[in-house]
Amino acid sequence: TTRARRPTVCASSASDGQPSKTSSLIAATTLACALANASPAVAKNVEITIDASQVVQESCGRAGGVPGSGTYKANCIRLKFTAYNKSNEVVYNADVFGQVKDQANDDVLSSGRIGSIKELQPGANETKVELTVGASQPL
Questions:
Q1: CA angle 61, 63, 67 (to 5 degrees)
Q2: Residue 108 pLDDT > 80
Q3: Bridge partners of residue 128, in order along the sequence
Q4: Which helix (H) or strand (E) holds 82?
Q5: CA angle, residues 56, 59, 65, in degrees to nearest 5
Q6: Which residues pair with 45 in a beta bridge?
Q7: Widest CA span in the chain
Q8: 3-state secondary structure of 29
Q9: Residue 59 above 80 pLDDT?
Q10: CA distance linking residue 5 with residue 37, whole number of Å
Q11: If you write DSSP's letter for every residue of 90-108 in order, what string do you get?
């Protein structure tokens, strides 16, 4: 027997570009969808928005499970925000991209990928992502 595969929805977005208290942490935020198990024919773009001025940053302590943590110290940063899925479909496996800057205005992440969101229902979604940053980089 074969089962029909539910279409995967791909999301992309950009912040509103307004300066904010967190603009040094996230200058621009975008979401993109990992297209696992979906053929390009069933994937489609969906607008997801995040208001960068409403992103809340908090420490989640020393990052656990970091390889070589005896010499390499890392801190965990939690970002809380509301992601708005303007479509009528659920978005799965959305990668969160953005710019993370330290106090010297240098990029902290080389890839720009901050984390991922497992599922976004239509409408407003309160969510969070955690990222690991070297303890030697003052944010």
A1: 160
A2: yes
A3: 80
A4: strand 74-85
A5: 130
A6: 10
A7: 59
A8: strand
A9: yes
A10: 9
A11: -EEEEEEEE--B-TTS-BS
Give 16-55 pLDDT, tens digit per residue.
333 333 333 333 333 333 333 344 445 567 788 888 889 9
Q: Is the pLDDT of residue 124 over 90?
A: yes
Q: Which two tokens stand for residue 37?
A: 């198990």
Residue 27 is classified by DSSP as S
What is residue 137's DSSP assignment?
S
User: For residue 54, which phi and psi values (nearest 5 degrees)?
Assistant: -105, 5
Q: Kindly state the DSSP code that residue 76 receives in the 8-state scheme.
A: E
Segment 76-87 shows an average pLDDT of: 92
Residue 105 exposure: Cα atoms within 13 Å on the Cβ side: 1
Exposure letters 10-38 (e unless 16+ CB within 10 A, then b): bbebbbeeeebebbbbbbbbbbbbeeeeb
Mean pLDDT along residues 110-122: 89
pLDDT(93) > 50:
yes
Residue with tokens 């959305």: 94
- Show the CA angle centred on residue 34, arms to residues 4 and 29, nearest 5°: 140
Amino acid at 91: V
Report the 10 Å Cβ neighbour count for 85.
25
Stated as kind and residue range, the H or E segment containing 120 is strand 113-120
